[in-house]
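Milestone M4 deliverable, item 7.
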Amino acid sequence: MDEYRIEDHPDLQDAGWARDAVRRAEREARARRLRSLPRRPRRRFWVGLAIVVAAALLAWAVFETNSGSPAGQRAVDLDEPFAGTTAAPWADGAAGVVVPEARQVGTFPADQVEAAYQRVREAVVAARLDRRVVQEHDLEPFFGLFAPDLRDSLRVLFDGRNDGEAALVVTRVAEGSRLAEVEPKVRGEMAAEAGPGGELVVRTDYTFAYAFTPDRPEAVRGPMDVVALSRFQVRYAIRTGDPGVTGLWADASAGSLHSIACSAAKRGYLAPAFTEPSLPPGLDFDLGAPSSPADGCPD
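Output delivered:
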């Protein structure tokens, strides 16, 4: 019994069977975790915040490859790290944060909707793409976009005691990791609606693929080693009232992380998988799937 190795089972040599098994296991784990998740208290500064960060390394890896090898490995061009991946045709950087055509929403005329879209676009770009924020951790360009009352609360959120929650608000690269010179790839959308409190709401759903520069290129096994992916769904609102309240608010956020370093993610930072290699590349990332509360990283 001690000498039996489960990896020698013939079913595990079948790539299709293994892929289906991974997806079934993830669905079952997700259901178990949903039933067992404890309720978390609301924080005053983040109304309705839904904290669901998923590092789903087993169920949702980032990229599909064209290699026929059992491990799905393929060469990586570090000058074009997205080549051959599903992210390759996505837009580069801020060009992927597209403002839709503004139309009247409820009682809000098209010009107000347009202004809201532009403000939200600035927030998305600052939080996920501005290298001053993402790489250098200079948060002031991001804070300045929000209403004064929320701005003050955000500074508390980023005081170093709540980095796990702060990751839902801003992407920060872990110390020691370096983004590649190429722009991240971006795909997603935003849409406006009238909120129940008489406010204009903009919901966003964007996926970002970040390429990193490895210290040891010879150790890179495939695209998912050098590219980390995050998806965030955020509800923004434009509010009016006293001077502290008037402006942009971010009310709720849900996110998932894929092809990452787990130890960095648990601290609230983003780092690529090559810093903690564990799984072979080649699993597919399902863009149509909802953000999952399942945590694929070990406890």
